[in-house]
């Protein structure tokens, strides 16, 4: 995927940070105001999609390499399950809000509501990384459908069959 | 209430254009307009969480669909639709619509008037009353999906994880070598 014109590049280089910050805000304040892990994660992914559309795929791959994104994805899922397992160990049941006694609900405080902000954070990490990976995989997929040239080049990859 | 009918009319017109237009890019943009109208509706119904998720997913899905559309050589649909099939489907849809109108006329609550408001001991009312005390989250949506019903969220995260895994396994592999080539 090639980049776009200089107008798009300039505007998206200004806007990308605002979109990313908005995603971080949605994730961190998910237990206080509308938002949450899923929506914030999608916003994070969309900032990278904007970069991918404006600057091309290679630029994004240099910024956030595929192995790093894949590991972030796995890390988010693992930590989210770990919140549940810690609830099992400390509270007696899977996904017990075990931090609630230490950080009880105070309206408007960022550090409150026990494990809910933590879960939001991990879900946001997971959703953002995985949506980024899906879009990246779809944009790679375009190259495989280009016909016989793609078939002959793939023979050297040492992967017989589909 | 008039705003809902205006939005509904807007969405219906966009849906008709999306189905009828020959240009795939216009169809994708019309689908995005439908999603935008839906998110506005959720905003007016005082469900900002759903509105945010709706607009974000619709816009992102729109970008993906546009990329998928532009990358194809074929961006126009050609050929006629079958007259008989259209007539049959319109008749069937009309019959289903009339039956639904008959059934739902008296039992459905007013638009924008949630049904759990009528039943005092419904689970939703318990969440609304006890949510802040039980979980400490000001955003009751977060308290439901990350405390009361966190297993749902776990399942959703698992589904997403598995889907990404499958997509990467299917779509990667051979493509890695082709990245080195210059863009066409």
UniProtKB/TrEMBL annotation, chain A:
Keywords: Cell membrane, Membrane, Transmembrane, Transmembrane helix. It comes from the Bacteria. It is found in: Cell membrane. One of its GO terms (cellular component) is plasma membrane. It is a multi-pass membrane protein. Residues 7-131 form the Na+/H+ antiporter MnhB subunit-related protein domain. The chain crosses the membrane at residues 12-32, 38-56, 77-101, 121-141. Belongs to the CPA3 antiporters (TC 2.A.63) subunit B family. NCBIfam families: PRK08386.1. This is MnhB domain-containing protein. It comes from Anaerobaca lacustris. The lineage of its organism: Bacteria, Pseudomonadati, Planctomycetota, Phycisphaerae, Sedimentisphaerales.
UniProtKB/TrEMBL annotation, chain B:
Keywords: Cell membrane, Membrane, Transmembrane, Transmembrane helix, Transport. It is found in: Cell membrane. It is a multi-pass membrane protein. The keyword Transmembrane helix applies. It holds the Pfam family MbhE. GO terms for cellular component: plasma membrane. Residues 9-67 form the MrpA C-terminal/MbhD domain. The chain crosses the membrane at residues 6-21, 28-45, 51-70, 82-104, 153-171. Residues 121-172 form the MrpA C-terminal/MbhE domain. Gene3D superfamilies: NADH-ubiquinone/plastoquinone oxidoreductase chain 6, subunit NuoJ. This is DUF4040 domain-containing protein. The lineage of its organism: Bacteria, Pseudomonadati, Planctomycetota, Phycisphaerae, Sedimentisphaerales.
């Amino acid at each position: 995927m090639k980049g776009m014109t200089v107008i798009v590049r300039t505007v998206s280089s200004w806007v990308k940070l605002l979109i990313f910050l908005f995603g971080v805000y949605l994730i961190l304040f998910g237990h206080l105001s509308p938002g949450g892990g899923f929506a914030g994660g999608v916003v994070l992914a969309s900032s990278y999609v904007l970069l991918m559309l404006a600057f091309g795929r290679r630029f994004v791959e240099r910024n956030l390499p595929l192995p790093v994104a894949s590991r972030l994805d796995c890390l988010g899922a693992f930590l989210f399950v770990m919140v549940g397992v810690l609830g099992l160990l400390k509270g007696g049941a899977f996904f017990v809000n075990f931090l609630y006694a230490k950080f009880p609900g105070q309206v408007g405080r960022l550090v409150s509501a026990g494990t809910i902000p933590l879960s939001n954070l991990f879900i946001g990490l997971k959703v953002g990384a995985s949506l980024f990976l899906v879009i990246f995989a779809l944009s790679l997929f375009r190259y495989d459908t280009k016909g016989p040239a793609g078939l002959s080049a793939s023979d050297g990859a040492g992967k017989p069959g589909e | 209430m008039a705003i809902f009918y205006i939005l509904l009319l807007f969405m219906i017109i966009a849906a008709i254009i999306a189905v009828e237009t020959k240009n795939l890019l216009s169809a994708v943009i019309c689908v995005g307009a439908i999603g935008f109208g839906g998110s506005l509706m959720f905003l007016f119904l005082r469900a900002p969480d759903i509105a945010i998720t709706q607009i974000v997913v619709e816009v992102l899905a729109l970008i993906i669909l546009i990329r998928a559309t532009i990358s194809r050589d074929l961006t126009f649909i050609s050929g006629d639709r079958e007259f008989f099939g259209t007539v049959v489907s319109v008749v069937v849809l009309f019959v289903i619509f009339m039956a639904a109108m008959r059934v739902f006329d008296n039992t459905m609550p007013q638009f924008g008037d949630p049904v759990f408001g009528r039943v005092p001991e419904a689970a939703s009312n318990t969440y609304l009353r006890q949510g802040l005390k039980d979980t400490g989250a000001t955003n009751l949506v977060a308290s439901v999906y990350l405390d009361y019903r966190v297993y749902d969220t776990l399942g959703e995260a698992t589904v997403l994880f598995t889907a990404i895994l499958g997509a990467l396994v299917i779509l990667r592999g051979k493509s890695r070598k082709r990245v080195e080539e210059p863009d066409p």
